[in-house]
Amino acid sequence: MRRLLLILGLPFVLISCGKSDGEEMLYKYQEDNVKSGLNMELSDLDFKIIKVKEVGNITAHDSAVIYRKKLVKLWFGEDATKQESDTLTYDFVIRRLDSMRSQAQSIILSNIALDKEYENYEWKETRDNATSAYLDASSWKIMDDSYRKKPDSILSVKYEANYSMNNPMLNNNKQTFDKYYYSNTEKTMFIKEEDHSSSK
Question: Could you list the residue range(s) of the whole structural domain that residue 181 is in?
């Protein structure tokens, strides 16, 4: 009877000793980074996972808030007032940026016609910056519109991870890392990492 119980319990022991989903994703993420960045195998660096745990979900609403902050920073910089932040709209920013790049392009073409291309350096920079900002704001608006339709949908899961590995750039000295990782929607892989300090 005791032998039968040991045999029946063996699969449970084997399963329990395997990696969790979070550990599997962390190992694969670091393995890909090491292969692409150092052309080495992760197993050669004595990689050890100390802890991986879920700490929260990232919802569509959370992501919409992040894009909104990017829009405010793009238009006002770091010093926007609360009223400015609350009243700024994607449509307003997109219209103004489109107007700015169109005006700059018109001046560039006018200077070319007047044989004054030497005056176009700053106008080209203005046009290019406005175009880049216009494309950013337009893409953020598309994402914001999509997220607002299902604000409670989970886009990612946030994990806290602690691990150690040898650093070949520092004579293989062992280092310990504390980071946050974000999964894809399906929770099959990590797609982003952050240091603890940058996530606060």
Answer: 20-59+154-199
